[in-house]
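Exercise (ungraded).
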Amino acid sequence: MTLAGRGLSIGYRDRVVGRALDVSLAQDEVLALLGPNGSGKTTLLKTLLGILPPLAGAALIDGKPISSFSAPERARRIAYVPQSHVPTFGFTVETVVLMGRTAHGSLFSAPSAADRLVANRALERFGIAALKERPYTMISGGERQLVLLARALAQEPQFIVLDEPTASLDFGNQGKVMRELRALAAAGHGVLFTTHDPNHALRAADRAFLIRDGARVAEGGVRDVLTRARLESLYGAPVEMLTDGATGTTAFLPG
Amino acid sequence: MTRSALPGLGIALAILAAGLITAFTVGRYPVSLPELIDVLAAHLTGRPSSVSPAVENVILLVRGPRVLAAVMVGAALAAAGTAFQGLFRNPLVSPDILGASSGAALGAVLGIFFSLGVVGIEGLAFVGGLLAVAAVYVIGSLLRSRDPILVLVLTGVVVGALLGAGVGLVKYLADPYNQLPAMTFWLLGSLAATTAADLVPLAGPVVIGTAVLVALRWRMNVMSLPEEEARALGVATGPLRVAIVVAATLVTSASVAACGIIGWVGLVVPHLARALVGPDFPRLLPAAAVLGGGYLLFIDTLARVAAPVEIPLGILTAVIGTPFFIWLLAGMQRTWS
């Protein structure tokens, strides 16, 4: 299966954010979306999720327009991990993950025992089963990000779309989330995430899509696309590249 | 901080049971518990009762309808408040946020102004509440925005203010000796005039609306998340929002039409219920409804017996609700768990 945008114009009724975008995501690969603030990353993400209609062109699941799927049909194929936030009500971690099962039940149903099993498996998968009964409002930011990942997994989707999954996490948790993104792709999910850190793209993604002012700058394998010159022109700022002599691993430093 | 649902719901049921017993037995004509049990058992089994006809009349004809109305109105307002607090992702929202009470108030004072009689007044109040919310919803949808919830709340505030001005105008024009006291009394809310005939028009909308809310209990969990997140989880937020608003408005308008404006119940009781069973709607909604019934029973009993004359319910709920609300604001730093 593929999740794709063909000739996409994205934005809102009163404001076009991006034009003529072609993007495609296969299962078992990780695609990173990079671009400066206000470049249209999040708008593109919402359009590919099917929660924002394209202004022109089409967002497609396996060649079929996303708008032709019902809300539950769509949610059984694509899961969304928003930037972590503190919700109004202190639902337990288990209830939050169970919400990922909503699209698998009927309008008037509550989650079944089978749904609970799936949710608990997702909690165990991310090693947070012990948090099950804790209010989601009273756990750490890193734990909250894992809960949202578990909720996405409980949705049993083909694709998982994440908005800055490493933002506001400490160094250790950033690494943990990136490893989980790789693992999700290895398990057969197509993973698309936005990030402000090219190193995270290098670490976790197979391919990178660079966007600036709503237009594609470059797309391809992370090692080919993420070069010092490209990043300098993408962000309009000087970038330094470091290479570890022993392993050959590269990293970028801003400024 | 784990919470099991059963003890919480048990406490709510115990409060309702205590409220029922208190409401039936306490008053200017005291009834003992054995008398109450005897009359109710006799009524259910059809055998003749051994207590005096006067006691039987007090229980079945005087207090019975009033008790049933208090339970229904309390449960309805609490369930509607719970639904709206989730829908608007705001724990400080009450069922009249979209103008149901102000619309009903204008309908009722117009009914009194044109001397329509009880059925006409209650009918106009019910229709007024529905029309006000429909107007708010249509205006809110026309003002397309990326945050439909915020627009809806602001439209509700604005339309409510306009309807309030309408109520003021009708009161200003009303006959100050006959109509104005009736309007003032109605606006403060009371169950004193409730008879068995009032129960049917109240029960219909309350049962239907509450049933819809209970059926949608799980979706309400998801609806309390940010709009885009709820949609990505597979919920068609637009139609579902309409369904919840219609159901909550139905029960609110029917309650207000039956007994006037009773504030605070739909705001305070959902918080008490969340403290008992947590925020998960499948548990919260029944607990809030049961607790709301018990709460209004106690308030109504207090209204009957606390003073030589009946105290309007709206005043009692405000006197009890205000300190509670201030306590709530003081605890804002804590989460609404």
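Further reading is listed at the end of the chapter. For now, observe: Chain B has a mean pLDDT of 90. Chain B has one domain: 5-330.
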